[in-house]
Structure formats: C-alpha cells, structure tokens
C-alpha cells in the first residue's frame, strides 16, 4: 500500500512538472499569467515567480501590470526573501502611487527591513534603514491605522540601537578605558534622552569619572574629580530611590572628604 502511494505521488509530481514545463515554454503570455496567479494562490511561489518573470516585460503598461508586480513582490515576501521583497515593494509603491495596494506595499517594504534587522551585536545599518522606512510610511500615510504599529516597531528598533550603544560603553568601562566610557555613555544619553538605560548610564558616568580621576596624574585630578562630583550629584538627585544610592553616596562623600583633606595639606 505504501509503495503504491509513493508511486502515485511520484506520478503526480512528474505530471505537475510536465505541466509547468509546458506552460513555461508556451508563447501564450495570458495563459502564463493566469497560471502564475494560480500557482501563487496555491502557495507555489517558486513556480509563480518563474512565470511572473517571463511575462513581466511584456505586460508593462497594460492593465494587468500593476497586479502582476504586486503579486511578484508578495511572492518573495511569502518565500521569506525579505531583501528582494522589500526592494520590489518599494519599487511598486514608487511606480504605482495611486494603486489601492500602494499603502500596503510601502508598509510591507518597511516590515521586510524590520525582519532583516540583525541582533544588536551586529552591524545595525539594516536597523537604521528599517526605522527610516517606517518613518517614510508614516509621513506618506499619517492617517493610516498602521501608524501606531509603525511607531511601536520604531521604538523596538531604537531600543536595539540603544542596547548596542550601552553594551559598547559598558565594555569600555570593564576594560578600564574610563575616558572612552564617559564619552560613550554621554553620547547614549544625548542621542536617546528618554532611554531606559538612563539610570545605568548616569551611574557608570559617575564611576568612570571617579576611576579616571583616581588613575590620572596629580595635576589633572582636581578637574576630573570635580566632574565626578557633578555626575554623582546628578545621580543622587534624580535617582534617590535607586538600589545604588548608598554606593553612590558613599563614593561621593569619599571624594569630598579626600578633596577637603588635600586642600588642608596644601
């Protein structure tokens, strides 16, 4: 029974291949287009794409061209080839701005870029491109119900960028490159004022200034301890309920005490 079933499946597969080859070699482009749509609707995107590619050049400027190119982009999307799908969705939105599918194409182009955004440890150029693509959609269709989703995805992507920047700054701190750590944490706060990493960043800015001053030559210590005190004061004011408050307060008091004793000796 299993052998018979396997043979039947093989015959069906051979027939299907034979039918596709016959259509592919046909000079009837309307028939090819109809078959491509049928393959697409059955979920056979590989064959659909092959036929769409054959008929696309001859259908430019016709009534069917618009739908064909949308199907073409969607077939890549369904195959999870998001790089090509994004390209063809953007092209569709540009070439057919008055199409009923233009809005959907522009959103899907951005969504494809979102799906191409890599983990935060890798180069984030695709993430920046995805943010820009969602912003393009929002600017083009500000009344769209998808705007809220776009903003939520932008926030998610921006958090990924912040995580990368914070992780890099923290690595500088762990490597005892304290000046670089101060610069990196400060840039994070400047670039993302509302970041969820603000408390952590301010804590490490304070400690970085402290260790940077402590490891400096004597005539540069006063200025750097002063910056540490400023950073510590900012943290104490803004995060009075932080579990780190005692640590920061003790270190702040120690800097003040050392400076007072140093001034007495001078």
Describe this structure as you would to a colleague.
- The protein is mostly helical and 266 residues long.
- It has helices at 2-25, 29-42, 45-59, 65-78, 82-95, 102-116, 125-140, 147-174, 178-191, 198-214, 218-238, 245-265.
Relevant terms:
266 residues; 12 helices; rod-shaped
Write the layout of secondary structure elements.
Layout: H1 2-25, H2 29-42, H3 45-59, H4 65-78, H5 82-95, H6 102-116, H7 125-140, H8 147-174, H9 178-191, H10 198-214, H11 218-238, H12 245-265
Helix pairs in contact: 2-3, 3-4, 4-5, 5-6, 6-7, 7-8, 8-9, 9-10, 10-11, 11-12
Helices and strands, in order, run as: HHHHHHHHHHHH
Strand content: under 5%
Structural class: mainly alpha
DSSP helix fraction = over 70%
Short characterization:
The protein has 266 residues and is an all-alpha fold. Helices cover 80% and strands 0% of the residues.
């Amino acid at each position: 029974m299993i052998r018979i079933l396997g043979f039947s499946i093989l015959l069906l597969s051979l027939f299907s291949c034979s039918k596709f080859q016959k259509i592919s070699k046909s000079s009837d482009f309307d028939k090819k287009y109809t078959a491509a749509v049928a393959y697409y609707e059955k979920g056979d995107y590989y064959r659909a794409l092959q036929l769409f590619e054959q008929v696309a050049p001859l259908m430019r400027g016709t009534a069917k061209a618009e739908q064909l190119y949308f199907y073409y982009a969607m077939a890549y999307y369904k195959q999870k080839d998001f790089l090509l799908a994004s390209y063809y969705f953007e092209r569709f939105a540009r070439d057919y701005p008055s199409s009923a599918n233009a809005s959907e194409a522009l959103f899907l182009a951005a969504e494809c870029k979102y799906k191409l955004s890599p983990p935060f440890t890798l180069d984030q150029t695709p993430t920046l491109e995805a943010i820009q693509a969602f912003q393009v959609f929002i600017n083009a269709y500000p009344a769209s119900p998808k705007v809220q989703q776009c903003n939520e995805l932008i926030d998610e992507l921006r958090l990924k960028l912040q995580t990368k920047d914070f992780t890099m700054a923290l690595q500088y701190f762990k490597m005892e490159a304290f000046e670089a750590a101060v610069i990196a944490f400060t840039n994070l706060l400047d670039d993302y004022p509302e970041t969820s990493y603000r408390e952590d960043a301010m804590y490490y800015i304070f400690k970085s200034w402290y260790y940077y001053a402590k490891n400096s030559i004597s005539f540069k210590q006063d200025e750097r301890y002063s910056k540490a005190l400023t950073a510590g004061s900012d943290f104490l004011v803004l995060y009075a309920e932080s579990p780190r408050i005692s640590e920061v307060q003790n270190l702040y008091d120690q800097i003040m005490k050392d400076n007072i004793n140093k001034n007495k000796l001078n």
